[in-house]
Amino acid sequence: MFIVDYNDLSLSFNEFHDLSDNDTPQYGEYCLLELKNGDHTAGEWHPSGDERKASGMFIRGTADAVDSEEVARWHSLDRYDLTESLEEEGVNWINIGREEEEGDRNVQFEGFKSFAEKKKPKEEQFCLLIMKDGSLAAGRWNKWRHEAGGAFIYSSALASHSWDKVWAWTPLSVDEFFAMELERENEKKREKKLNKNPQADPELFKYGMDISVYYEKALEKLRGEFNWATLAMMKKKTPVWQIAPLHGKYVFGQIEKNYYDDSDIVTPWTDGTTADEFIDFLCGYTHDAVAHSNPEERFKFGTDVNVYLEKAFQNVKKDYRWLDKKMLSKTWQYDIRRVDGDLEFVRRYWNESEFSVYDVESAEQFIEWVEADYQQTALRANKTTACYEPHFGHIELYGWNLERYVFHKLQSGDYMVSVTAGNRTTGGSRDFFITPDCFEAKTYEEFLERYLKIVPAHSFGLGKKELLPDKDLKKFLGY
Predict the structure, then answer these.
(1) 217 C-beta neighbours (distance < 10 Å), count
(2) Where are the alpha helices (DSSP H) in 294-362?
(3) Number of DSSP helices (H) and strands (E) in the chain, helices first
(4) Tens-digit pLDDT string for the chain (479 aa)
(5) Which phi and psi (to 5°) does residue 322 adopt?
(6) Which helix (H) or strand (E) holds 27?
(7) CA–CA gap between residue 415 and residue 448 (Å, rounded)
(8) Residues 308, 309, 310, 315, CA torsion sign
(9) What's CA 202's distance to the chain center, in Å?
(10) Pick from 241, 365, 397, 223: nearest CA to 298
(11) What is the dihedral of CA 177, 181, 184, 188, to 10 degrees?
């Protein structure tokens, strides 16, 4: 357990190496850096591969690096363990390395702080760290978004030191990323000050400061074209418009949350300067949402959801012959209910109060969505009894690589194919049921022509050229 008082602690770094002498760290070594402009930062050494000169990059994070051309000298952080000194009572000065540096050749750091006293660095601040295991490190502070604490990013791929592994920290020099963050924070403060007493343009807000008044006036106009129009239909077009302060003035704006700090980002309306122009704009903005919400089209089969579900079930049953209604009790459940005053198709699971709205234009579209759910439910209930995976080389699909392409014979005697593709960072899989009409083909070649309309070669990698010569696949499919 460390007993040194970090408030009074100074670290003196005494073993700097000059890059100009072609004296470089080991590959991957993490170093304290003194830049040619006198600033101090840190990074992980990655040489360029040119052995004739000390060139390369000191990596500080993803898309965050210092070129060796900017660095005057470096001092290792990896080679030292301060445990013994930090466990000694009364220590307030620790030399890092030999005490042979003279004059301005050594560098001291002090002003250490600790999370134990609930002190945190500023966002994006690059700091020198003393870790709880006695080692030295550095990193750029990023607070966690939805919970207490944060981490110091120190290398690519967001490699980080968690806050609870750090014993004490002190800031290094301001760099471009921290400077941008400081400017952003200063701008937020300026904006907050301006918005304490915002002004309202009388021409722009002649109907008052309640946004619902402007929506109501737009609704009156829309009902001249769509007699079924409601406010709820208009507000399906998101983001909805609000009245908000911006730069010291009230504006009609759309408000979104900043992903990083949950602050409001206001995008102002700029297509006019009067209240009536904004109302006309609202009519155009919400026009399509209202046009596609005609209750007569959406609920043409009535308001009993079971009518729609039965149609979907019967449509799916034609090809997925083993499907029964008992299977459907284990999947999504559907209702027609009033949401904000309007009837909506909704999907829920077990909890009656938790649901999502299906914003569909027609009864047929809702039925198609339910059919897709029922099809997947049927496939999950039909176990695989045999598989066949065609051989294929490298196939690239719009930047993704085809990884797996597997035919499955199902317990019912039917078939499906599973396709998986991905790139270095993401991927996905899809299952396709091979409909019975494909097997009505008299020849294997005719079968493939029908099959490739379901799983086309241009989208999923394998076509007639690859599959037609495959005799094992032909046999697996019963031809």
Answers:
(1) 17
(2) 295-298, 305-317, 325-328
(3) 13, 25
(4) 799 999 999 999 999 999 877 889 999 999 999 999 999 999 999 998 766 677 899 999 989 999 999 999 999 999 999 999 999 988 999 999 876 655 567 899 999 999 999 899 999 999 999 999 999 999 999 998 777 889 999 998 889 999 999 999 999 999 999 999 999 999 999 999 999 999 999 999 999 999 999 999 999 999 999 999 999 999 999 999 999 999 999 999 999 988 777 788 999 999 999 999 999 999 999 999 999 999 999 999 999 999 999 999 999 999 999 999 999 988 889 999 999 999 999 998 767 678 888 889 999 999 999 999 999 999 999 999 999 999 988 888 887 889 999 999 999 999 999 999 887 677 889 999 999 999 999 999 999 999 999 999 998 889 999 999 999 999 999 99
(5) -80, -10
(6) none
(7) 13
(8) positive
(9) 41
(10) 365
(11) 180
Residue in 189, 365, 367, 206 with CA at minimum distance from that of residue 293:
365
Distance CA 260, CA 172 (A): 23
DSSP 240: P
Q: Is the pTM of this model over 0.70?
A: no
Cα(251)–Cα(242) distance, rounded to whole angstroms? 8
CA neighbours closer than 13 Å in the CB half-sphere of residue 36: 8
CA pair distance 267, 105, nearest whole angstrom: 52
Q: Cβ neighbours of residue 252 under 8 Å, at least 6 residues apart?
A: 204, 211, 214, 241, 242, 243, 268, 269, 278
Instruction: Name the residue among 99, 95, 127, 101 with its Cα closest to residue 114.
Output: 127
Coil/strand/helix, residue 214: helix
Tokens 């299952």 belong to which residue?
431
Number of neighbours of residue 304 by Cβ within 10 angstroms: 11
Tokens 């343009």 correspond to 201
Q: How many CA atoms lie within 13 A of 400 on its CB side?
A: 17
Q: Which residues pair with 61 in a beta bridge?
A: 64
Beta bridge partners of 139: 127
